[in-house]
Amino acid sequence: MARAVVACDDCAVLLLDSITEIRPEDAGQIVVAGSHGGGSAVRYALAVPLLGCFFNDAGIGKDQAGISGLSLLACPTLAYSHASARIGDAADGWQSGIVTALNGDAQAAGLKTGMTVQAAARLLLRRG
């Protein structure tokens, strides 16, 4: 699965195993990506205004490389733990992901570390 849509309450969430699969027509969506949240990956989403975006923290790593791109996006952007979901597997991130890091927009939206990806996405959808 490179690209799929899952139902979330009355809305849909886009699952992308790789953020490189994002398209202009995905604007306004919540995206759960299997990609790491480093700057080189997050940059693919810069041209597409999103309602929210989730990335794998890839173990966070040296100098927080696995989450260093979260602040680049102008929407709530979060990372979920590599220990809770497989890297490169957005469906696993959706099913099992636990939030470990978030940008300022996500904090302002009331999201917190320790939430599940599904709970965080539902909160974002309610806030619209």
Give structural notes:
There is one protein chain. This protein is an alpha/beta fold and 128 residues long. It has one domain. Helices cover 21% and strands 25% of the residues. It has a 6-stranded mixed sheet. Strand 3, helix 1 and strand 4 form a beta-alpha-beta unit. The longest helix is centred in the C-terminal third of the chain and has 11 residues. It is globular. 44% of the residues are buried.
Keywords:
single chain; about 130 residues; alpha/beta; 6 strands; globular; 4 helices; six-stranded mixed β-sheet
Task: Please summarize what this structure is.
The protein is of the alpha/beta class. Helix content is 21%, strand content 25%.
Total individual domains: 1
Helicity range: 10-25%
Question: Could you describe the largest sheet, including whether it forms a barrel?
Answer: 6 strands, mixed
Please report the distance between the alpha carbons of the first and last residues.
27 Å
Shape: globular
